[in-house]
Amino acid sequence: MSYTQDIVVLIPHYNNPNGLLRSVESVDDFENKVLILIVDDGSTKSQIDESQILACTSAKVNFLYLKANSGIENALNYGLNYIQNNLAHIKYISRLDCDDICVNNRFEKQYQYLESHQEIDFIGSYVKFVNLNRQLIFNLKLPITNAKIKKKMYFNAMFIHPAIFFRKEVLDQSGLYPVNRKAAEDYAFFFNVIKNNRVANIPEYLVECVVDPDGISGKQRKKQVLSRIQVILDNFYFGYYPIMGLIRSFILLIIPRKTLNVLKSKLK
């Protein structure tokens, strides 16, 4: 089979081979356009079974291995550097995390959207959040227009990381993931992106994300919120959205995550 990949799906992995398998299985190899790039961030307990991964997908898969665990931001940057230096044919970069799955022909829809909207460089989508048993917790609808996304970014990330899809050239201006905003590297990256690019969200549920209490947002929630506050300050101007965004973030420091999930579940 000949491949003409121009979409790369960047998946970081750390000690979660079963979750990785579920994610890879969900990738729709749209017209043989998809290349999966897995970056193992120095796994120590649970190694990747390459043969099992290759058997579960028709897409081509590349594996990269870091010698030691260095954090997701460094694993992502390692993957992005590899894409820039070794995959000249790639046109679009997308993301997915272990345990999260693609639904509703995600890559076909995101690819066709950017092909038909040349003025847009970077997109996401609506997302369903589920628990570890794949039971729905809440649905998340995000702003779909460039103007609203840029304003409301100060309130919260207006993209869900595993749902993003963008032109490779975006990296020429935004750069890689900031490594000085621990647990909020995606939020900082999104701010860098919106400075020089037009963005959008597709108003369809294209990704299903797992809420893991042992994930970064659960175990490092305080660190994440503090990093997000710093990101807002990095991009601050005196206006309604930055000021309200700071107030919201400080409130999040004192509200338990379980309480927030209960409130979000009302959106089901």
Automatic annotation (TrEMBL):
The family database entries (Gene3D superfamilies) matched by this protein are listed as: Spore Coat Polysaccharide Biosynthesis Protein SpsA, Chain A
The Glycosyltransferase 2-like domain sits at 9-173
InterPro entries (alphabetical): Glyco_trans_2-like, Glycosyltransf_2, Nucleotide-diphossugar_trans
Tell me which UniProt keywords the record has, alphabetically. Answer: Glycosyltransferase, Membrane, Transferase, Transmembrane, Transmembrane helix
Q: Which residues cross the membrane?
A: 236-255
Q: Could you cite one Gene Ontology molecular function of this protein?
A: glycosyltransferase activity
The UniProt family comment states: Belongs to the glycosyltransferase 2 family.
Task: Provide the protein name.
Answer: Glycosyl transferase family 2
